[in-house]
Structure formats: C-alpha cells, structure tokens
Amino acid sequence: LWVRDDVIIASAHCPVALAHVTASRKLLGICVAEFVRMSWLLSSRGSVTGNGGNLATRVASWMITSHNMSNHAKGVMPAVPSRHRRQYVEHANDVLCTHSPGPPISMIVTIKNGKFVSIIMKRGFRADNNGCVDVSNSESLGGSYNGLFPMGLIGCLKPAPHEYKYTRFFKRDVEKPNIVDVSVYSEHLDDTALYSENVDAPLASLTHQRHYMAPGVQKIPVRYGKVRGSLFLPPGPGPFPGVVDMFGTAGGLLEYRSAQLASRGFASLALAFFAYEDLPKALEEFDLDYFREAVDFLLRHEKIISDGIGVIGTSKGGDLALCMATFIPEIRACVAINGSNACIGANFRAGHELIPSLPYFDISKVRMHDDGIMETISSVPDSRLHPESVIPIERSNSAFLFLVGVDDRDLNSEFLAQEAFRRLKHNNYPNSYEVSSYPGTGHLLEPPYSAHCVASFQHSFMCPILWGGTAKHHCRGQEQAWLKMRHFLWKNLIEDRCTTDQKLQSML
C-alpha cells in the first residue's frame, strides 16, 4: 500500500510483481516502473506495514522501495522517505488495489481530529479479472457509499461506531497535518467484524499525511487593538491579495480555510468575533468598528495589496461579511456562503445606524426528528416581513458572490441569496453580483474534500442540528465552490496586475 503523487495504491496480490519475484532487482525495478508508469511520491511522511508472512504483501513493499532495496533485508518494510507534501484541498482520489481476482476486499480509512475522535470510512470492492481495483472507475459494493465516487475516500468520513454520532470534523491546529491511516482487508467487513478481537490483520496499511499549510506559509497570531485572530501569509515577498475570513455560530477561531487560502496565494486573516480570548462569550450586538479595525490591519501590512481586500463569511459570518461590504468601502470582493441577507442572532451597529436582528427562531416551527436532530430551516423569520433587518448591500462598492447549498436544512440559503440578488438588480447595482447554487449540498460548505457532516451538536441549542446534503453531491459542490470562490477573489482583487488565468494556473 503506498501513495504515488496523488494516488494511494493498495497491493495485496500483484500478478505483475509476482511474475518477477525471482528476477533481478534491476528487472523488478523496470517492471514496477512500467506497472505504475510514474514515480512514487508519498505525501509528507509515511510508513508501510503489512502481514510479514504474506509474500505478495512483501512484494508490495519491494515495489515501493525497489530504488533503495539493497539497504533493507528482504521482507522488511521500511519507512518510506518524504518526497513532497500533499495539501488537504488537493486530490487523493485515484486508489489502485491489485488483488487476486474475484474475492471482495475492504478498504478502511481512519483519521483523528484534535479531540481524538476516530473518523472511519469503509468500502467494499471486488477485484476485476486482472486482480485490480481502481476507485476512479470501480464501484463500491457497500460500506460508507455505493457506486462510483472517487473522492469518497475523504468525503464519506464519519465518526466511528464507538464515537459520538453527531460530530463535525474540523481542524483546530492547522500547523499539524491530518494523519490518515489506510488499510486493506481480504474480505468485506461490517462494523461488528471490524472491531472484533478476532479480526485478521490487514493485508497492507499505510499512514498518509494531509497538510493544511503549504511549505513557507506563515501563521501570525493577531492582537491588534481589539482584533483577535490569525494572519496567514503565503511564502514570498508579496504583496498578496488580502481577505478577512469568518465562520458562524461555532464561535472561537477557525483557521483551516485561511491556511488553505494562504497556500494558494492569499493573505488571509482568520477573524474571531465571539467566544475567543477576551471577546464576548456569546453573540452580542456587533459594532462596525471592530471589523473596520481588522480591515485597517490588513491594509497597513507591508505584504498585502493596499488598495482593497476581500471578505468571506459562512453562515452567521455571511451576514457579517455583507455588513462589512456595505459599510467599509475598501472591501472589493464579498463571498457569502449559506448566509442571510438580513442580520440574524445579533444587531449590527454602524456609527449612528443600527440594523436590528431578525426576531429569533420561531420555536413552534422547529422540527424535531425521531433521532433527536433539530431542523431549523422553517423557523427562521422571512426577511421580507422585516425590511428593517435587511442589510442595504446596494450601498456597497464590492462585487458579490453568493455560494448556496441547495439542500441546506439550517437556513433557506437559496431563497435568501436570491433575495439579495433581486435587491441588487432592483437598485441597478453597478458592480458584479452572482448566485452560484450546488444541488445536494448542505449548510456546511467547506473547502474541498472536507468530510461531509449531515448533522452535528450545536451548543447554542444543546442538541444536534441538521445541516443537510448528501455526501457525493456535497463533496462535488465543495470542490466547485472552492474554485469559484478563488476565481472570484483573484478576478476582483488583482486582475489589473496579471491575468486571472495565469494566477489560477499557479494555484492548481
């Protein structure tokens, strides 16, 4: 089992390699090079283990290390040296497994977040007549998903059976990679068999690391006046396009999107606005001065382009982003992700002007599912009935991009985005504005290949909240929305410095 560039390969019984077991090292190396048709690259650091008594598994390890096989005794599976780092938003979708034809196999993927909650993805496959499983064109027979889903390896990760079911997987410490363990078993395993003491050892396994920060990215804690957050700077002298990055009612400081944006050429300020350090512990009335101070911090930085920045907000961060774009003229590009066109949860004050929050959720319209999950989409008041709470975005200087999960079960995000669109159109807004919708995608529209979370525990309600989406569509939507957002930001923040296509090519 190994990683080759963006390809994870599991090898249990390899007809090509077995045919050359007795051949010279040189011949084996040629055979293996022809078999994979490119060099093997492991993402950051990794190691390979397997059943030492299984000749085919040992051959798999020889295939990995044929270039330096003389340094190791036959049958010993050494650590594989680091060759490059794989970013979390990059593909890891081509999984090849060579196995004897016919019998089913299981591929098990586990990962742990900062709270050491095991996340598991399992899927069953059957090798073809050549003994090969290639998940880019092989359908899963069951497990975490059915059918063809190349990025199901990551997109279908979910809490293991012994963990709390409604856990949202997000990264707190972005300076450490996610450790992904991949194992291949010789049969299809259900949860009971997998956690049984009598389960056989895997045929092969591999530890794979996926990083949030590219080499050279700097993370700088920010305590600037009242502003609290973390600034992520790309490597190099700059200047770089700057963005303010915010999330929602999860609170605290979430840095993983900013780390990945900095790895793609943006100077990104992950901005906390409550429940962090000396900030208010709960949602209270927001003051424009706090967010203006964050913008001033970015514009004064020597490595950031000083003639305008962008802002990104998810959920509650979405309406805050709209407020920033409305009242801060230096905002040139605003991305609202599954947010509202009106203030929700707290008032927003801009000098002498106050935008009151929509009346709180109508508890009588909350739907409680049999499994204890709360669905809130119908309980949010209609912003059309409360015009005083609608954000006057037509007064902005910014371009707008509204990213929408059509299957959002927390907010009626598609309707709210269309309301914002209609307001801009009605006022003959001179700058660009667009709604981009993704069918089957839920509320938690994250960077690509983040595990789909259909529901998770929310402290503000003290119960799990339904976010919506289906894994396959959600994963695809995240990938498309990420590219859309990056293109939008580059186009509106630096198009006068170089072509968007040139910059996008450098980020892919």
TrEMBL record:
Domain BAAT/Acyl-CoA thioester hydrolase C-terminal: 287-494
Source taxon at top rank: Eukaryota
SUPFAM superfamilies linked: alpha/beta-Hydrolases (SSF53474)
InterPro entries in alphabetical order: AB_hydrolase_fold, BAAT_C, Thio_Ohase/aa_AcTrfase, Thio_Ohase/BAAT_N
A molecular function GO annotation: fatty acyl-CoA hydrolase activity
GO biological process: acyl-CoA metabolic process; fatty acid metabolic process
Acyl-CoA thioester hydrolase/bile acid-CoA amino acid N-acetyltransferase domain mapped to chain residues: 125-223
Protein name, as recorded: Uncharacterized protein
Originating species: Meganyctiphanes norvegica
